Amino acid sequence: MFPAYSLFLLVAYMVVPAAWAQTCPTTPSLTSYLSTSLPDPFTFADGSTKVLTLDDWACRRAEISTLLQNDELGTMPADPQSVAASFSGDTLTITVTDGGKSITFAPTITYPSMGTAPFPAIIGMGGISIPSPAGVAIINFDNEGMANQDSNPASRGVGLFFNLYGSSASAGAMMAWAWAVRRIMDALEQTPAARINTARVGVSGCSRDGKGAVVAGAFEPRIVLTIPQESGSGGTDSWRISDSLLANGTDTQTASEIIQENVWFSTNFNQFATTSVNKLPFDHHMLIGMVAPRGFFAIDNIGYDWLGPFSSYGALVSGRTIWQSMGVADAMGYSQSSNHSHCVFPTGTAQQMQLNAFIDRFLLGQAVNTSGITTTAGNYVFPMPNAEWAPWSVPALTNGTSTTTASSTSSTSTISSTTTVSTTTPPVSTPTGVSQHWEQCGGIGWSGATTCVSPFTCTVLNSYYSQCL
Ligand SMILES: *[C@@H]1O[C@H](CO)[C@@H](O)[C@H](O)[C@H]1NC(C)=O
Ligand SMILES: *[C@@H]1O[C@H](CO)[C@@H](O)[C@H](O)[C@H]1NC(C)=O
Ligand SMILES: *[C@@H]1O[C@H](CO)[C@@H](O)[C@H](O)[C@H]1NC(C)=O
Ligand SMILES: *[C@@H]1O[C@H](CO)[C@@H](O)[C@H](O)[C@H]1NC(C)=O
Question: Quick one: which of 201, 237, 297, 401 has the most CB atoms within 10 Å?
């Protein structure tokens, strides 16, 4: 029914949309932007151009990425000059060099007692709080050492990332962690001795580290399954709905509180957090949607008002419309549980079976049905379209070239309401009959190119998705 998605994975590897400037709408100045409802993911920031095709979504996704970097998370640095890796014992030692400086960090890998190498893996932000799945390795990433998250302002700009890029780099801690997840992927790809199948790597974390898992999944397209657990505000919550919950008397973490508490965000976010989040030309349903069409499963706990579980629910229901628009809603699920302590996963429950289904499909490559895993434990109701929060209808995105009108060929984008960011152009492929590195090259419903540009091989990740690796 829906033509397969085709080109948007190109953009997934980009941080900024400079290379799309010839076909993507220009993002206007958004200094007077104001929206009490969640911004429509299917209308460009110019307020009029609609997302109708998968190519349009590639443009819109790049725009969302830039806006999130400029106004909330800080800049994802361009790929560094070099990433060197070695493996010994259970330790992957990674040295990243850029601009004449180097840093070294060393995630450890816990291998499963069953299964066969190369193993699928989950990168754990400070470890994982879900049960270790059988047959899946766990890569223990010390996100705290990469970018400190102990307090604001003392931990701002502290950590290995800032040794490399300077303590005044715009990135908040979460963007620094996402950068490091990308370097872990670089290192795994060049280190077969680590015995990890780099086509089947997920990311997870709980609470603050769950916020980081969402950002890593959004900004690293090689991650095939993103599993935020009880991530709350700054993760799967909507800034707008969280503010409304607090205003209505539910003690929920909001933007204005969170920027005082920690350094997860860029200081660029303060202007919105301290005035009105309604000035943000995005909300976290769009951060979530950057993960589409890859696997995404959010685990929530309605037992804590502070986590804003209804806010998360609203953002997840809204964000899922992006998967729906591509005809792959079954790649995105969410599940709430209750009656347990924060970050203590309820093993053996229905939620465990839902988690297993996503892991089996996306990490173990099994033909498992992940359709309709959208569970509320709180009898929450959030119809779509949602007149108050999400008043858009969901297009069925079509294959084919962009229908948007060209209006800019500049390689410098002025997008933020306050900041001008000079963009660099990462290597970007042009669409041909051959898929480029990281692009889709097969799967159920796929009608695009099925061969890969040399030296990459079309690799079956699951029955829905093959990728040039
Ligand atoms: C807060 O209350 C207002 C007024 O009743 C309502 O419209 C809004 O939906 C409530 N917010 C949330 C998050 O439930
Ligand atoms: C949580 O506990 C309450 C009170 O004991 C009970 O009524 C409810 O069914 C429990 N919910 C779940 C999901 O176990
Ligand atoms: C997958 O699960 C959904 C929801 O339970 C169900 O409606 C659908 O028929 C299932 N699909 C297949 C192919 O079994
Ligand atoms: C979809 O797009 C791809 C890549 O441009 C193209 O090769 C393919 O023929 C298109 N399929 C349909 C059904 O339009």
Answer: 237
